């Protein structure tokens, strides 16, 4: 059974529509896939419906923008109630912060000699409620300023970069608590990616597990080298955390993140479903472990 628990659609900063993403997941032989768009649940119904149509299991997820000591941390939420007042209100505030910083980023880019307009950025956003730096990067690509999103981030948009503007995000501990209050499972995405071990060192992970019941960490990820993966697997076992794996797929918006390039072990997925199932009404069939229907 092949399980990919971290993907993005055009509802946030991916390039595939939710239904298209699900069809591609089936085509590459995945049995279970989670849609985890940034700070929104809006694409889930379409993804689940397509999964039911073609016989692919879809996990309802979301990636919540959090921070620790001013550093960005991404929190994957699985099985959370999309109508939970506290979680929904924070997601609305986060999305407002994304839009609120746009003018500041564009002003910095203009001063750096790589101007793009708000209209050009919004043309890349489409109907997504979650405007992100990847959309700005896409506008920069269209304007001929950079080759791809990676260059846009490396040269301009990354945290601490010359065009970076801070925005509102939730304190990590509060984010974990909110996901749990909404009946979900909380797993930190790519915690040591891009040399960020200092943000979430082992003692911090231990405290989050002990004091906030953090459920797990995403270990098998393209931003983790073999040494980071080995260390994180050991820490997950030591602290009783689930160790997941996934692609962090963004369609053509992120290179070297093909669907299914990393996967989650079936027993980890079973435990994840058990945990969020215990916190809410019985899960729908689309959230239960099952074998994908034969495609012939």
Any descriptors?
296 residues; alpha/beta; TIM Barrel; DNA polymerase, domain 1; 2 domains; eight-stranded mixed β-sheet; 11 helices; disordered C terminus
How would you portray this structure in words?
The chain has 296 residues and is α/β, with parallel strands linked by helices. The chain has 2 domains: 3-84 and 172-287, TIM Barrel; 102-157, DNA polymerase, domain 1 (Orthogonal Bundle), CATH 1.10.150.650. 41% of the residues lie in helices and 15% in strands. It is built from 11 helices and 8 strands. It has helices at 18-27, 44-54, 85-100, 102-111, 118-125, 133-142, 149-157, 172-181, 202-212, 226-239, 266-278, and strands spanning 3-7, 32-35, 57-68, 71-78, 170-171, 185-189, 216-220, 242-245. Strands 1, 2, 3, 4, 5, 6, 7 and 8 form an 8-stranded mixed beta sheet that branches. Helix 5 crosses helix 6. Residues 281-296 have low confidence and may be disordered.
Write the layout of secondary structure elements.
Elements: E1 3-7, H1 18-27, E2 32-35, H2 44-54, E3 57-68, E4 71-78, H3 85-100, H4 102-111, H5 118-125, H6 133-142, H7 149-157, E5 170-171, H8 172-181, E6 185-189, H9 202-212, E7 216-220, H10 226-239, E8 242-245, H11 266-278
Parallel strand pairs: 1-2, 2-3, 3-5, 6-7, 7-8
Antiparallel strand pairs: 3-4, 4-6
Helix pairs in contact: 1-2, 5-6, 6-7
